[in-house]
Amino acid sequence: MLILTCPCCGIEADETELEPGGEAHLKRQGPGAADADFEAYLFQRSNPMGVHLERWRHAHGCGKWFLAARNTVTLEVYGTYPAQTKKPPQDIVRAIKKRVPGWEWQG
Amino acid sequence: MYHVRKVPHDRESADMKRYSAFAIVREALRNHRGWERAWISPEPRERYDVVVIGAGGHGLATAYYLGRNHGVKNVAVIEKGWLGGGNTGRNTTIIRSNYLQDPSAAIYEKARSLYEGLSQELNYNLMFSPRGVLMLAQTEHEVRGYRRTAYANALQGVKTEFIGPERVKQIVPIIETGGPRYPVLGALWQARGGTARHDAVAWGYARACSDMGMHILQKTEVTGITQKGGKVTGVRTTRGDIGCGKLAIVVAGHSGRLAEMAGFRLPIESVALQAMVSEPIKPAMDVVVMANTVHGYMSQSDKGEMVIGGGADGFNNYTQRGSFHHIEETVRALIETFPMLSRLKMLRQWGGIVDMTGDRSPIISKTPLENCFINGGWGTGGFKSIPGSGWAMAELVARGEPGPLAAAFGLERFREGRFIDESVAAGVAH
Fold first, then answer.
1. Which of A40, A42, A47 sits opposite B316 (nearest CB)?
2. Which residue in A2, A43, A47 is closest to B414 by CB distance?
3. For chain A, which domains are there?
């Protein structure tokens, strides 16, 4: 079972307590955006086999959104970090690179 | 595991002996020494007119209809594992076409009607069993939804009807219609829906493709896609470079990876969908029952196992195994609807990687790379659509433009907002 630590309330929550929210760090598009950019924001996903940065909500806990770095092939979790982060923090990147050498964030 | 054994009658050429009652008698009289391999495993050529990536049901059907409908026979189907070893061998084999939206109903009904004659056409017993599919309405919302679908189906020429709980009980005596939490308020009944033997669909198409002289290259993984001036020129594989005039990517859950090699992104996310089978029991249920509210889909196999499909995880997952609590939820709800299940032991549980699009409808489309086509995003509805999907994809690949079946399923629909929104129509399941 997938277990993530909520960075807001610090609780180790298993997946029944959490709601997945899809890929993190998407570039938001608003009114006036080009059709292609809006399509990319709404629908196109990197869907990697491997390291995935994603949004979760501690739905049956504190209710707050947070971000997690997880491997979609091994289900290994590299760490969680606050939702208010524009890019993955250094310690998360280090933890990922330790396990997946050569990984770079494509943000 | 492959045990490559040189049998005396191993096939060097591609002409196929027909299976028949006579052949069984003939072989019985000579100790079954005359059976030949169903398809040949040749060395790859340098170049093919069309290369299809993915030898699952959809890829093989694409190749088959390329040959049958369009006369394109210089075709290779490349598979990284073994033939039919992905979702083709992992689904719960349900075939139905009772969809709400016109484009979906058209392609799924095409597939269903092709299934009816496919065993004869392929000379391979697919064990197609049009035993009827019931989609239970267990909330008022579903009652309204399925009534609407029944009306839509009437207009589309797909034969379905909305039936009441008494009729449901008549069709499925083991069902508990008066449950407190999930009462059965009615059902959408498609009498010509059913099941088929999933492996046989892949094997039957493969045999027919091989018979037309096509190459099925198993254990050959595509590692790159080569292009020149915006046009596809071939693929790099673990067995060397293979050139092609046109390329068809038909790889379900791994569509994203192949698209990345071809240099474009897809509106697809891959998640795990789970299924399980019980121990075999005597015949208890002779139709397919789907309970979309609780994500429980059940039929009884010819071996007597109850085949149960569950829900999908909400998060990206390539592990071919899913979360336990989804199974728990499915089983918990099914036990209320089918109390007799509570004493059954489950034999096996497994997961398949399904490719979900934003509107839960498939993609049969041209791509930004010229002469490269993609067929994917079937999500949880892949098996039932195999013949129709192959038919439409073959037309697209052969002509370079989508035919009437595929036209609505182009990638551009996401940009233009022309969704074929089936996630609302069918709950989540397909």
1. A47
2. A43
3. 3-99 (3.30.2270.10)
Whole-number Å distance between alpha carbons of B241 and B236: 4
Give the pLDDT confidence of B82-104 residue by residue, as tens digits: 999 989 999 999 999 999 999 99
Q: Do A20 and B314 touch (CB under 8 A)?
A: yes
CA atoms within 13 A on the CB side of A58: 23
Spatial CA neighbour of B277 closest among B344, B181, B354: B344
Q: Please give the interface size between A and B, counted as residue pairs whose CB atoms are below 8 Å apart.
A: 67
Residue in the structure block whose two tokens are 């509210």: B293
Instruction: Identify whether the C-beta of residue A66 lies closer than 8 Å to the C-beta of residue A80.
Output: yes
Chain centroid to Cα A67, Å, comes to 4
Per residue in B189-215, pLDDT tens? Answer: 999 999 999 999 999 999 999 999 999
Q: Which of B257, B266, B324 sits opposite A49 (nearest CB)?
A: B257
Contact between chains at B319 and A74 (C-beta distance less than 8 A): yes
Position B277, amino acid: V
Report the pLDDT value the prediction gives residue B383, as an integer from 0 to 100: 95
- B101 DSSP assignment: S
Give residue ranges of A with CB < 8 Å to any B CB. Answer: 1-2, 15-16, 19-20, 22-23, 35-36, 39-40, 42-49, 52, 54, 70, 72-75
Out of B319, B414, B416, closest to residue A73 by CB: B319
B138-183 pLDDT, tens digit each: 999 999 999 999 999 999 999 999 999 999 999 999 999 998 888 9
H-run or E-run covering B328: helix B324-337
| Confidence at B15, pLDDT banded by 50, 70, 90 | low
Distance from CA of B316 to the nearest CA of A (A): 6
| pTM: predicted TM-score of the whole model, two decimal places | 0.92
| Third-level CATH fold of B127-192+269-357 | D-Amino Acid Oxidase; Chain A, domain 2 (3.30.9)
Inspect the interface and report whether the beta carbons of A15 and B325 lie closer than 8 Å.
Answer: yes
What is the ipTM metric for this complex? Answer: 0.92
Token code pair at residue B364: 């049969």
Residue ranges per structural domain of chain B: 43-89+199-267+359-425, 127-192+269-357
CB contact under 8 A, A72 and B319: yes
| CATH no. of B43-89+199-267+359-425 | 3.50.50.60
